[in-house]
Amino acid sequence: MNYTYLTLTLYFALMLGIGLYAAKKSTSSLSGYMLGGRKVSPHVTALSAGASDMSGWMLMGLPGAMFISGFDTLWVAVGLVFGAWANYKLVAPRLRVYTEVANDALTLPDFFAQRFDKNDGTIKLVSAVVIIIFFTLYTSAGLVGGGKLFESAFGVDYQIGVMVTMLVVVAYTLLGGFLAVSLTDFVQGVIMFIALVMVPIVAFNHFDSSESMLAFTMEKIPSISESYAELTILAICSSLAWGLGYFGQPHIIVRFMAIDSVKNIKVARRIGMSWMTVTIIGALATGLTGVAYVNKFNVKLSDPETIFIFFSNVLFHPLISGFLLAAILAAVMSTISSQLLVSSSSLTEDIYRTFSKKTLSQQRLVNVGRICVFVVALISAMIAMNPSSSILNIVSNAWAGFGAAFGPLILFSLLWERVTYKGAIAGIISGAVTVLLWIYLPVLADGSTLSSVVYEILPGFIISSITIWGVSLWDTSPSKSITDTFKAMNHQLIQRSS
Question: CA dihedral defined by 28, 31, 32, 38, rounded to 10 degrees?
């Protein structure tokens, strides 16, 4: 009996079952389909945010980076942990209150429009375009992870693996919307946690001691001291800058909009940060023990991003292997489903509903949202068909795009009443354009791009922030009604938090 296939079949059945359950609970209105009626518990919020954040790059991209780059990857991990903590502290409580007060805004573009009291649709359209561009890329990274899993673990054709991953995720996202995504993310977060604790511990047991393991490791990668000595300040800043991306990731911060109360954000933060710290350490340890194991036993590993899959297959009973491989699917699917839903939300709420001249029923909007989920997934699958794609590279580009385009504006919108509508639009465009130019424009002497010098999120975030600040100061001050609303929302934040 093939226990691995049995485990994966049961996992797929569980995900679809959750989708059917959620379909009965929260798809009668657009608010229920997109935000679960703002009744999501702190436990589900925390693990859902974490699972949708970490994706396949946590079990494949990050161990692969540790395998290749060694201890340099630690700086990325440090930046991510501090960025996630700051996101819970600065953004989560304010966004939860502001989006509800601002005419029950369901998406980030809708929140921006309400925040600046503009209903002309311009900022919604600009924001939605940025979301669709970068989420299509981001979703394709998850599908690459699914394709590599099926190819490496089961010998299934890579392209077939991509399509199977897409179809399962689309199925439960279409059925249950945000509630299905959040509940499946919770289950997937638990699976990822167990897997990232189990795998490095079992792999470490193949060595006599930590000194023995590190000895095999140092034959392939530099020690911490050597690695630190070779790093420049610019390289460290580039790695730490990953943390800036958290402020602008729509699929993560939408969880803050859906939590049942502001008071529960503290509970969600404690759960979420504990989960994240343990899983990141587990991912790094998987890559580190992978270097030592491959070196000790002279194993040929064609793709470093598959080290977790390799361990799952060679170190465990097939029943456990199935569970661990399901953890990779969990990581991949949790992020893809979140990204598909946010993309669908923007297409439905910020473009179709805003520019439609018809009176639209709630059920029609939900159905349009479902169509948008399928369309975005199909385009992403087409992009993901190249098996040589690097998960971490695609994720880093999309992460930078969102972090630079939306991160500064979200912070300014929640913390500074003087920010203006023109400053907001200029900030989104300047951040997104800077990132795209940094990634794709070959301006250096050898034909390479500026992203080879410094991670694109850093210049994008800085330029967007300066643009928002400068244009807002140059522009006419916001109207009294806008500043009064801003103060009223701050007052409500204090009341709800106490």
Answer: -150
pLDDT in tens, 447-492: 889 988 899 999 999 999 999 999 999 999 998 888 888 888 888 8
Question: What is the CB neighbour count within 10 angstroms for residue 487?
Answer: 11
With a CB cutoff of 8 Å and minimum separation 6, the contacts of 27 are 33, 175, 176, 177, 366
Asked if pLDDT for residue 367 goes beyond 50, the answer is yes
Asked, for residue 441, whether it belongs to a domain, the answer is no
- 236-268 confidence digits (pLDDT tens): 999 999 999 999 998 788 888 888 888 899 999
Please give the tally of structural domains in the chain: 1
Is residue 455 included in any domain, yes or no? no
Q: Is residue 140 part of a domain?
A: yes
Among the listed residues 35, 89, 44, the one whose alpha carbon sits nearest the alpha carbon of residue 262:
89
Window from 88-102, 229-243, 376-390 with minimum mean pLDDT = 376-390
Q: How far is CA 116 from CA 106, 119, 476, in A?
A: 16, 9, 13
Separation CA 397–CA 405 (nearest Å): 12
Half-sphere exposure of 497 (CA within 13 A, CB side): 15
